[in-house]
Design a protein that fits this description.
Number of strands: 17
CATH architecture of the largest domain: 3-Layer(aba) Sandwich
Shape: globular
Structural class: alpha+beta
Number of helices: 9
Strand content: 25-35%
Distance between the termini: 30 Å
CATH class of the largest domain: Alpha Beta
Helix content: 25-40%
Amino acid sequence: MTKIRSADLGPGTFSREANKGLMERLGYDHVPVPMVEHIDIAEGIPADADMGVIAYYNAIGGLVQENLDDIYENNLNILDLIRIPVEFRLVGLRDGDAAERSEHGKIYSHPKALQQCRHYIRKNYRGHKQESVASTAAGLDSILQDSTGMALVRPEAIEGKPEYVIVDEAVARARHGYKNFTDFFLVSDHNGIQYAPNKSYKSMVAVTPHYDEKGLLANILNVIGHVHHINNTCIHSRPALDDVMIEGQQAQMFYIEMQVNPTDPRFMRCVDNLKSLLPNKEGLETVRVLGSYFDPNAGWNVKTGYAPK
């Protein structure tokens, strides 16, 4: 049987860990396809990969807006989700100048890792330059070229690599002592997942109204919550990606996450009602089902994460 080509950001990244976990959960025999950035994954399906792993949400940084937009604009389906606990280590070269590194060393990592660690960096390395690279693992390559530099990486990234030394272990944690994590979507250009009717899932729709009126958003949420008794767990708004014109203002769109199994009849009735409330105009969709996925909050403790298996 042909192995599934599943794209991620390469060895040593949280993305690769998410890829491995999702493939094991779904029972897929796969070959990982490393890519440079998340947008390469979104645009590389199906030519270069059958599926891909894309970061969606982080406990510190929140929504990864550009990745969700890439899923929408490339007409991808969300097949599943996995939550990866996130820890960082600040590392340098073992043979590097420790004093110079501490005083002036540039810090390399993925932009989202730098964002998640910004309070730590501001407190301990104020004034040090930061440089964004394609992935946390790419930060290790950067300090090979900059012997006084440091990289923010996942702990496993330096296992078996004696050329690196840990500068600091206590780097980033979510507010109030909560455990940091990143949720990753598994996406594809089609959806062949058989969702178990007795399991807890979330489902996401993208809604782009083509008109505005007082209480429109309230009416949308009323259809979900009061008409069909579905819990709306999250809503993200942004300027509309489609070419929608509403006189006197910039059109908006909403990514709406619901606590509902896709096999539940309430879900499709809810989607149909939303389409009736927001009819298509000029060939543009107003309501698109993006997909359904495992509810990562099932069994998750905000202080300690998942219980050991």
